[in-house]
Each structure stands twice: as C-alpha cells, then as structure tokens.
Amino acid sequence: MEKSAGSVGKVVVDNISKSYDVGRLKEPVLDRCCLTLPAGQLTVLIGPSGCGKSTLINILAGYEKPDSGSITIDGAPVGGPSSDRLVVFQETALFPWMTTFENIVYGPTVQRERLRDEIEKDAAGLLETVGLREFRNKYPSQLSGGMQRRAELARAMINQPRLMLLDEPFRGLDAMTRELMQEYFLRLYEDKGQTSLFVTSEIDEAIFLADTLLLMSARPGRVIKSMPITLPRPRVPSMLTSTEYLRYKEEALDILHEEALKAFEGGSQAAADFVEAYEERETVG
Amino acid sequence: MNLIKLRKAIFSKSVLRGFISVGGLIAFWELGRRLQLPGLAVVPAPSEVFAALSDIVAKPEFWDHWYASFTRVLGGFIAAQLIGIPLGLMMAMNRYFHAFTFPLLEIMRPIPPLAWVPAAIIFWPTTELSIGFVIFLGAFFTVVVNVIGSARNIDVRYLRAAQSLGSRPIDIFKRIILPAVLPGIFIGMAVGMGITWEVVVAAEMIAGKSGLGYLTWSSYVGGNYPQIIIGMISIGIAGYISSSLIRLFGRFVTPWQSTQ
To answer: In whole angstroms, what is the distance from residue A70 CA to residue A77 CA?
Structure first.
C-alpha cells in the first residue's frame, strides 16, 4: 500500500449530461454537471434522492457513458470499468460464494500482477484494520451489515485504486454502526490518502468526512455549490458539536432548502423526494 | 457431546411424530384389511407385505431390478446434466443462440416425456436406449430452464464489481457466473430427479424387461399383490435416496448456501 498518497487521482468532470428513455420521452438525469476531485482528497457529494448521484457514480466507474461531456483522471479520459476506479455500493456486492478473505483477494488475484504471498499479506493487514480478522473464513451471509461494508471497503482498498467511489455505502445501517463505519472509513482514508468521492444524503456524515462538500441540485442534477470543509484531521466525533461545524451545516442546509423550494414549485416527483429528504435532515440535525 | 446430540436428534419430538404418523397408517391399513373395510379389503395387509418382503429380499432378481432402474436413472440423468447445463449457459449468455434455440425448446418442452415412448422405440435400436432417452428428456428440460433462469437472474452488481476489480471474461465465467448459477442447477437437479423416477417407472411398465417399474407391473399381471406394494415402496425409497444424494452433493458444492 505504498502508492504515493495525494499525488494521483485528480478527476475533472466537465459538462456531462445524461438522460434516460422513459417511454418516448427523454428524462434528463444529469445536466451539464461539472466537478473536480482534487488528488488525494475526500470529496463528499450530497443531494436529494433521485438527483442523479448514482448515475454520476456509474459514469465515473465506467458502467455507463454520458450523452455528452468529458471525464479525465490525471489528464487521461476514462473508459470502461477498471480497477483504478473502484465502487463501494449501496447494498453489499460481496460475492456470496466467497469467504471474506477470498472476496478481498479477488481483485489482485484476477489481475495477476502481484505475488500470492504479497497479496495475502496485504489482505491480512486490511482485515486487521477493518476489524474482521476473526471473520476471514466466513461467508458474507454470516456477517452483519456493518461487517459486510467493512469487507467491501477492504476489497476495494487492496487494489490501491486511484479513485474510490462510495455510493451511499453506509445507508441502511443503524445509527451506531453508521458512526463506527465512518470512523473505520476515515481511518483507512487518512492512512492511505486515496482520492475519494463519497456520495451521501446525510448532512452530518457529509461534513464529518469531507475535505470538500459538493451540493447537488434536484433532477436533472448538477453541482450547485462547492464548500471547502477546513475542520482539522484526524476527525473526531466531538467536532460534530463545534461552532465551525454548525456554521457549515447551516450554510449547506440553507442552499439545499432553497433548492428544495425551487424544485417543489416544479412539482416533480424528484422535488417531492427532495422536500421529504430535507425535512428528514432537519429532524436528524 | 456428539453422542448426546445424536441421541437428541434420534429421540426428538419431530422424529416421534413421524413414527406416530407412519405407524398409524400401517395400523389403520392392517386393521382395515382385517375388518374388511371397503377398499382396504382387497389390499394386501402390511403383515402379508412383510412376509413377502422377507422372501423377496433374499432373491438376487429383486436387487437386479433395483440395479436396472438405478443405472437407467443415473445414465439418463447424467446425460441430461452434461448436455443441459452447457446448453442452458450458452442460451443464457448468447442472445443469438438463444433466439435460435429458445422457440425449439419451448415447443418440445410441453410434450410429456412418456409421449415420446413410441417414437423413441422406433428411433432407437434397442429398448434400453429408448428408455434411457425418455429418462433423459424428463430431466433435460428442467435442467435447461433452471440454468437459463438462474444465469439471467445474476445480480448486475456482482458482474459490475467483478469487472471493476479487473476480471477477464474467463474469470467472470469461472468465478462469478458458474458459482452464481450453481444453486439454480441443484434446484433443477432435485426437480429433474423426481421427474426421472416418474419417467423410468412408467417407461419400464410400458417397454421394460427389468427394473422396479417392471417389477410392480409384472406383479400385478402375475397376481402377486403383496409384491405390488413392495415394488411401490421400493420406488419411493429409491427416489428418496436419489434426491438425498443430490441434496448432500449440493450442500457440499455450495457451502455458502447452508449458512444463511
């Protein structure tokens, strides 16, 4: 894991648009979306459900192609799926027929570039870091939700990707587990410094993790605001009550609320989702 | 410790209930025959069947019938797997191949295997081969349909993850698609095995000179009624042994399934 941290993985997304066919109509999902992920930084993207976050992730991962616009990573255009851009999914995508250990070594095994001993040593280290040493020979169905996400983080990290894409990876976990997962994730991130894009709809999670917070509009999605978060690292949970933190939160919520009202007047389903998501956020915060 | 577990498993309430129901049936049947209850009066009583059983198990011909049916089932069943699994995988993975073969499959599939018996006898040079062919058909369609179904239902997340992690096409096939369809293959096998026994018995009754189906039918023709019951129970036990073996094999090959 000695890849020089902070030097690779600069991503520039320039004016990408994407729409899906809905019957005879075209439903735009992303509209001239621009964003930059600075190398070695943790960027968090927040937006209402249905705003195109997952589509953006799929495009960055290479599973889907944008209708227009370009994406480069370290200056080179991105193509299809590759192990230098790895996704941790919303729901677990661990292979159910492999043990935790087999899942983690899967990437380097099929890439056939590194020695077996080296791979296994790496995997053992990662298992330790994510607290799954005793579960290496268990199948995913024998792990709890939180353990599955941790195994998935490890499965991605072992490939030393230039870009980590995390699509609401902690959604559906209970609050306690979620907090723990955020700390595990930060430990890994602060250790390796891999360029990361973390998508979430939880404002607290977003600010707690982010170097930069990107706010996304309702569908068709585009980035409407980029907020640098200058809380010091390593982040600790007590920062969640600092005045600086509360100021960030207020600012972000104001913008999101304004966007919600704007979208609500449009009367779309996405807008309704947005308002709902916003209200949820208020009660959480 | 294990002995205690074993004793608990053997003397558990559910085993007891099983014995009560089977024992109850046997007692009712015996009583029905003795009391000349309508319907049961003409059926040989369990005591008569047991008496006949002790004679018949001593005869090697009885076991030859078992052997004949088992080899037929095994032959037809294995052939169905060997041809059906690759065919199903190919149909699931190649659109063009699917377009060519699927209509054919769907026309052939509703034809009951037994309807093939006359054509099979005409077509194949020996009776043994015709019976084997009909058994093969019994398992074949179930296998193909199950393989196609499970291969098409592979979660796209697994394929995407595998792609992202740097898999070559051969890795995706060997490490993702094959294990993902294995549980479906075993469901197909279990169902197919059931059909296979139905088919072998019927085929032996129609065209056989040996086997448990032939034994049952010839006992009827020869008027040996207790032996009919022995034939029937033998078929039941043989089917049960076959599907247990498949379940065991399946559990061994897909260990992740039994952990859920």
So the answer is: 7
Q: Which two tokens stand for residue B111?
A: 């034809």
Cα–Cα distance measured from residue A47 to residue A50, given in angstroms and rounded to the nearest whole number: 8
Which residue on chain B is closest to A60 by alpha carbon?
B164
Is residue A202 within 8 A of residue A176, CB to CB? The reply is: no
Does the structure show a pLDDT above 60 at B4?
Answer: yes
Residue span(s) of chain B under CATH 1.10.3720.10 come to 45-255
Q: Which residue of B has its CA nearest to A89?
A: B157
Q: Are B233 and B25 in contact (CB under 8 A)?
A: no
B102 min Cα distance to partner chain A (Å): 28
Tell me the pLDDT tens digit for each residue of B70-93.
999 999 999 999 999 999 999 988
Residues 6+ apart with CB under 8 A from A152: A88, A89, A92, A93, A94, A103, A169
Task: Give the angle B35-B38-B42 at the CA atoms, nearest 5°.
Answer: 80
Q: Pick from B120, B116, B110, B95: which is nearest to B142 by CA?
A: B110
pLDDT tens by residue, B199-246: 988 888 888 889 999 999 999 999 888 999 999 999 999 999 999 999
Phi/psi of residue B15, nearest 5 degrees: -65, -40
Write the ipTM: 0.77
d(CA A247, CA A236): 17
| pLDDT interval class at A130 (50, 70, 90) | confident
Q: Using CB atoms, which residue from B157, B168, B259 is nearest to A89? A: B157
Residue among B134, B140, B139, B141 at smallest CA distance from B206: B134
Question: How many residues are recorded in chain B?
Answer: 260
Give SS3 for A52.
coil
Inter-CA distances, A45 with A97, A118, A217, B102, B220, Å: 33, 35, 11, 46, 78
* pLDDT score of A254: 87
- Region at B92 (left for phi over 0; alpha for psi -120 to 50; beta for the rest): alpha
Contact status, residue A11 vs residue A62, Cβ threshold 8 Å: no
Structure tokens at B240: 């049960």
- State the architecture of B45-255 in CATH terms: Orthogonal Bundle (1.10)
Exposure class string for B132-170: b at 16+ Cβ within 10 A, else e: bbbbbbbbbbbbbbbbbebbeebeebbbbbbbbbbbeee
pLDDT tens string A60-69: 999 999 999 9
Q: How far apart are CA B20 and CA B24, in angstroms?
A: 6
Q: Within an 8 Å CB–CB cutoff, is residue B54 touching chain A?
A: no
Q: Does B259 touch chain A (CB under 8 A)?
A: yes
Q: How many residues does chain A have?
A: 285
| Residue B222: count of CB within 10 angstroms of its CB | 10
pTM: 0.78
* In contact, A52 and A29? CB cutoff 8 Å: yes
What CA–CA distance (Å, rounded) separates A143 from B52?
A: 55
